[in-house]
Amino acid sequence: MDHRKGPRRRGDELNQAIFAAALDELTEVGYPRLTMERIAERARTSKASLYRRWAGRAELVMDAVMHQLPTVDDLPDTGELRGDLLTALRAMAVTLNSPVGTATRGMIAEISGDSDTVRQQRERFIERRNQLMVGIVRRAVARGEARAGALSPLVASVGPALIRDHFLSSGGPIPDSVIVDVVDHVVVPLIKAV
After folding, report:
1. What are 125-176's pLDDT values in tens digits?
2. How confident is the model at residue 39 (pLDDT cuts 50, 70, 90)?
3. Is 74 in the same domain as 99?
4. From CA 127, how far away is CA 109, in angstroms rounded?
5. pLDDT in tens, 62-118
6. How many domains does the chain have?
7. 173 cis-preceded (ω within 30 degrees of 0)
8. CA gap 130, 127 in Å, rounded
9. Residue 150: which domain range?
10. CATH assignment of the domain containing 187
11. CA-CA-CA-CA torsion for 127, 132, 134, 139, nearest 10 degrees?
12. Per-residue pLDDT, 84
């Protein structure tokens, strides 16, 4: 299909179409067979549009996956620290347990030789993840459930890091019992007000 025959999309609308196309293609063919050409066709845009935004497929896939991850505003405020943590870590697990998560693991293995790309993508992913968790802790501090000292990126990273490590080492899926154990035995005791 000629992308020039449809209405011209720009900005957020075009990015949404590209992210959806990348994730659909990734799910369908896996990372090794993923091409910028097929993503462009599926998104009904040009390869040049993709390359103006991303240097290659690894960067595009990471942006598409990160776009799937929730922000603190996307998640409901359950009214309690434990509930908010369970909701956030379950949302992360849903993404990791999906075909997109499986394909992402393959992509990470494939780009592991490119240390600059790995470092940049890791930093971006960790920053996004930490913003979510710090937001949850901030709500808990405001309710008096968490200590103010828990508002640090290091503390915020503990729960998601344990979930990610389980995903990478076990091959998924991440059982809900693992999420509950991480929240109840590690994260809540680390964060809660004494």
Report:
1. 778 888 899 999 999 999 999 999 999 989 989 999 999 899 888 877 899 9
2. very high
3. yes
4. 21
5. 888 888 878 888 889 999 999 999 999 999 898 888 877 777 777 777 777 777 777
6. 2
7. yes
8. 5
9. 69-191
10. 1.10.357.10
11. 160
12. 96
Whether residue 137 is found in the same domain as residue 103? yes
Tokens of 74: 């996307």
187, pLDDT greater than 80: yes
Residue carrying the six token digits 């066709």 = 41
User: Same structural domain for residues 105 and 73?
Assistant: yes
46 with 142, same domain?
A: no
Please indicate, yes or no, whether residues 106 and 18 belong to a single structural domain of this protein: no
What tokens were used for 28? 């369908």
Amino acid at 5: K
CATH number of the domain at 44, please.
1.10.10.60
DSSP letters spanning 42-88: HHTS-HHHHHHH-SSHHHHHHHHHHHHSPPTTTS---SSHHHHHHHH
pTM score: 0.77
What are the residues whose beta carbons fall under 8 Å from the beta carbon of 159, sequence distance 6 or more?
A: 85, 88, 89, 133, 182, 183, 186, 187
